[in-house]
Amino acid sequence: MKAKDDLSGHLLAGGLDGRHVPVAVIGGGQAGLAASYCLSAAKVEHVVLERHRIGFEWSERRWDSFSLVTPNYQCLLPGHEYAAGDPDGFMVRDEIVDYLRDYRHRFDPPLHEGVDVTRLGHDGHRFTLTTNRGRFFASQVVVATGAYHRPRIPRFAERLPGSIIQIHSADYKNPRQLPEGATLVVGTGQSGAQIAEDLHLAGRTVHLATGNAPRVARFYRGRDCMTWLDEIGHYTKGITEFADQEATRHKVNHYVTGRDGGRDLDLRAFARDGMHLYGRLADITGPVAHFADDLRSNLDGADAVMEGIKDLIDAHIEREHLDQPTEERYTPVWEPGHHVPTQVDLTRSGITSVIWCTGFDADYRWVDLPVFDGRGYPAHHRGVTSRPGLYVLGLPWQWTWGSGRFRGVGEDARYLTEQIVRATQSTRRVA
Prior knowledge:
- The protein is α/β, with parallel strands linked by helices.
- Helices cover 26% and strands 20% of the residues.
- It folds into two domains: 20-149 and 362-430, FAD/NAD(P)-binding domain, CATH 3.50.50.60; 151-356, FAD/NAD(P)-binding domain, CATH 3.50.50.
- Strands 1, 2, 5, 6, 7, 8 and 21 form a seven-stranded mixed beta sheet that branches.
- Helix 4 links the parallel strand 11 (182-186) and strand 12.
- Keywords: Oxidoreductase.
């Protein structure tokens, strides 16, 4: 479907300047598009503002071999469920970008690309949005920018010798962009484990500083583990069902990969095959990296989580009397020695580059409204903040595990649309 000339594409100069819109959606990623689809279905007039272009985060901040870790059939954007030929496969980076751009063309959202909202405030009567294309107003606002804004790099990175190239995972593309020599990868969340594997498969020498991220098996007893968890109901559990909601909301994701049809990521196997593993990177003094003495506990902890998930699957199979093949449990293929190095001279070890796979910080400094907790994170219930008319969408564990993913963002968008319609009707009754 062809986009409307006055609502999509790049914003014409002054196109929104001075205008008032009923609803402004900030962010044109999967969350913003899902919100727009639901608002359009409810016949709510709105605009969607995207700083860059559709698919930018996926195309520019993911590496070349990147793929989803959730099966394709779990891509459930409203009105755009995955319908291609490989439901149990894993879309690669360019396919994800195409999936989002196809979504945009399917329902023709009122999208303005290239619009950077630099301040969101309230004048006592309505929300004010200051942008690079002018200032305008809205009765209600959905902030759909996610929570991964600013690459997080520890301050001691400043002490690395200038001869060592440093990049964040957001800027990593492929092994060819790095200088000759070994690479230190810091962090073993999804990005760290997958990038370490990418370098390892390319024949590069990899040193890996581990963390306490858990892992999950790709397949168990004949099915993908994420399919099992979906069937068990794990993905539909609301955040309020967990005893420690804040810890749940901010915990690190399990590492696994969808690459080449999907497989486990086993750090022990990497070490067996020549990768150098250490504990958590604690400090840097000149060319010397200092590691915590926790490699064994990091590996054991990740394996314990994986086996615990298998316990859940076993219990589900038994409870439902399912006829599934049995499978032997994991046996460690490598164990750390008694003297794992806690100090490594990077220069002498031939390390010429460091990749910081240390996550992202949320950056809402442009939102000039008192709706944040002590860490600068939006305080909300199911995306509804304490400021009437202000909502957030696309956050990790906003309501369920899938909230920040293609799996569950649509349900959150539908819920917020109901709140927006209800608020609009209430305002009309008062008027």
